[in-house]
């Protein structure tokens, strides 16, 4: 009964109303962090203009780093935690953090409230992180604007520009077993070629060394490849490890976000042929019979 009330529209309204009072502490803590994070639009332009590799750190990665808390598809471990904490920008690689750590101006109300609450209740480790990781950051949410932005024109613009990142490039996709990035949609239509490395849908970090090795083997035989990775926290670290050799983009939920939009939604809905860790029963995925997709697979890592 209580859960039904909480999930109802009235319940959600009152939760957001109460959460609104968190804006003041959020604002104070955001100022103390003093992070410089490019917004989603500028993030994509920066990637396009500089051919930089990108690793994304969001609330899931922060929870692993500072709370030793597993996320639905990836168990926390001391090795994963330390590798995430020690990531730093260099000439080939930049870290992306949620723009919501600096401002929530461009977000819809649901996303605003999420970041007001998250920063308020986790400000100690966020401030600690900001004190030890200076410089400018990209925006981790360039890959999930559909469910978070309030401006629909801005959403369309960001999506179109993200797709320019791999235009006329030989793409290598590293993805979970049921991610199926670009399958049965037009996200990769402008790519010169597409090769796929299929990794475990869950706990992929346990196979990161093997994934890295296979990726380098395949990439060494492809002209000017770009590596697109959708693999949770493992993608963050892989993009860093690969960046000295190849441009690598941790793309997150971009394909899922696009699938929501294709169906006319600006919120999460069930996509039955994709793994979606943020949806109830999102690990129950329809069997794939798409031959074109299967022909792109170069290696499967179990």
Morphology: globular
**Biggest pleated-sheet summary:** 5 strands, parallel
How many domains would you count in the coordinates?
Answer: 1
Helix/strand structural class: alpha/beta
Per DSSP E runs of 2 or more residues, the count of β-strands stands at: 9
Range of strand content: 5-15%
Query: What's the SSE pattern?
Result: HHHEHEHHEHHEHEEHEHEHHE
Keywords: Membrane, Transmembrane, Transmembrane helix
InterPro entries: GT-D
Protein name: DUF1792 domain-containing protein
Organism: Limosilactobacillus albertensis
Walk me through what this model shows.
With 302 residues, the protein is an alpha/beta fold. The chain has one domain (2-300). Helix content is 42%, strand content 14%. It has 13 helices and 9 strands. The chain has a 5-stranded parallel β-sheet. Strand 7, helix 11 and strand 8 (247-250) form a beta-alpha-beta unit. Helix 3 packs parallel to helix 8 (123-132) and helix 4 packs parallel to helix 9 (152-164). The protein is globular and about 55 Å long.
């Amino acid at each position: 009964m209580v859960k039904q009330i909480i999930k109802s529209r009235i319940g959600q309204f009152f939760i957001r109303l109460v959460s609104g009072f968190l804006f003041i502490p959020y604002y104070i803590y955001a100022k103390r962090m003093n992070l410089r994070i490019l917004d989603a639009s500028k993030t994509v332009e920066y990637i396009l203009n500089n051919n930089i590799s990108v690793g994304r750190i969001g609330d899931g990665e922060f929870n692993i780093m500072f709370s030793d808390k597993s996320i639905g598809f990836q168990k926390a471990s001391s090795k994963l935690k330390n590798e995430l904490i020690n990531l730093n920008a260099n000439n080939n690689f930049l870290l992306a953090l949620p723009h919501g750590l600096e401002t929530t101006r461009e977000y819809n109300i649901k996303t605003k409230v999420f970041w007001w609450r998250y920063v308020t209740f986790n400000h100690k480790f966020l401030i600690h992180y900001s004190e030890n990781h200076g410089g400018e950051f990209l925006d981790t949410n360039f890959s999930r604007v559909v469910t978070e932005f309030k401006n629909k024109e801005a959403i369309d613009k960001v999506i179109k520009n993200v797709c320019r990142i791999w235009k006329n490039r030989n793409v290598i996709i590293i993805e979970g077993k049921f991610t199926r990035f670009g399958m049965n949609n037009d996200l990769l239509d402008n790519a010169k070629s597409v090769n796929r490395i299929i990794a475990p849908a869950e706990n992929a970090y346990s196979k990161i060394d093997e994934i890295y090795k296979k990726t380098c083997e395949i990439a060494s035989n492809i002209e000017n490849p770009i590596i697109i990775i959708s693999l949770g926290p493992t993608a963050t670290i892989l993009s860093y490890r690969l960046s000295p050799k190849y441009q690598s983009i941790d793309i997150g939920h971009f394909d899922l976000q696009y699938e929501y939009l294709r169906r006319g939604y600006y919120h999460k809905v069930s996509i039955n042929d994709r793994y979606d860790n943020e949806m109830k029963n999102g690990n129950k995925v329809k069997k794939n019979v798409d031959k074109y997709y299967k022909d792109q697979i170069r290696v499967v890592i179990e």
